[in-house]
Request: fold
Amino acid sequence: MLDLDEHEVLVTDVLDAVGGAARDVDRVAGGQPVLGAVEGDDGVAGDDEPVLAPVGVALVAEPPPGLHDEPLDLVRVGVVQDRVAAPRPPFPAAHGHDPPTTPGPTLPPVRALAVLICVLGLAACVSASQRPTLGASTSPTTTTTTAPQGPFEVTTVDRTLTGASPHLFVRIWSPADGGHGTRKLIVLAHGLNGEPDKFDDLSSSWVRAGYVVAAPRFPGSSATGGGQVAGFTDQPAEVRSVIDQLTAEKGMRLDPHHVAVAGLSLGGSTVYALTTDPCCTDPRIDAAAIFDGVRPGAFGPAALVPNEVPVLITHCDHDPVLAYQDHAVQGYARMQAPAWLVTMPCAEHPQPYEDEPSSFDHLVEEVTLDLWDSVFRNAPEDAAKIVADVQADGRATVQVKAT
Reply:
């Protein structure tokens, strides 16, 4: 385990047996990871046994019991210097999205994994409930009063949720809506060495449209927790704990049966697990957004299952941390409709999502709001705006799997 200071970050090098190398970290020095090559040793390992070769020493990783359907991922660790972010340009006051006023339909989830092995070990996945089939709604409905129209002012509160172990620090962004109506919750999962306060701008754009956003600080993978990969498999349960506790509070006025999840990088793999992996799926989740995330893969005894909720994947085509082909393309290939892959021509990793400036900040805000509105306002036509917004951007491209 590495002891990192505020100027260092943990970099993981993931190699799968189909030859895709990727590094999962929130930031790299000058956009370039400091990592050596990882090669397979054909004379020692088979196709399902990747080989790590640091400094001339070959290590063969035997596939552990319980891994199925996808090849084993190896994680290699290194340390690079962090870069200093420039101030981010101000956001537009609003993007024309109305707040949700009625409970959305119960669309079904996806199952995805992020198999990550730290050099020292592999953690076990957590169990979760199954999701109803597409088009069916077994959850009780909630009564919603008409909410005032946005854009809303944003209030931010930092809390520690004590209703489960471990206790979780969470930042909550809420609309100043005058106490009217039932609101929808979006849980946002940070990446490796990340923190909730890196998402003030993106979260505020959703809150101005009427949503409540909660970003937990994961005890292991956060910068505060030391940027440890090993505790990553606890994160789906920690997200569910946030949903449990916040929706149980009457003063929050949250719909307990219809929520959304989003995640960056390692947090993206957490979202894949929550929506596509039988170990971790949650029937309350109605939509998911995955930001330059680690691709799904099987973990545990159950094979991967198709997603049953709408999934939006956004990814930079020259991401220096997680290779586009190995993660975005492979992840999208596993998705069933409705699903979108928005490809942005950029060599960035966290910048389009965190508070560091990116020319794609506005596009990410637009397409994610299109997704949330299409689901929570029961407005399928808003899903078509994802394509329209990408086309209007003029730089990014979008692939669509329609129902």
Q: What stands out?
A: Confidence is low (pLDDT under 50) at residues 1-96, 101-147. Residues 361-376 form the longest helix (16 residues). The helical segments are 200-207, 235-247, 266-276, 324-333, 361-376, 381-393. The chain has two domains: 8-81, 154-401.
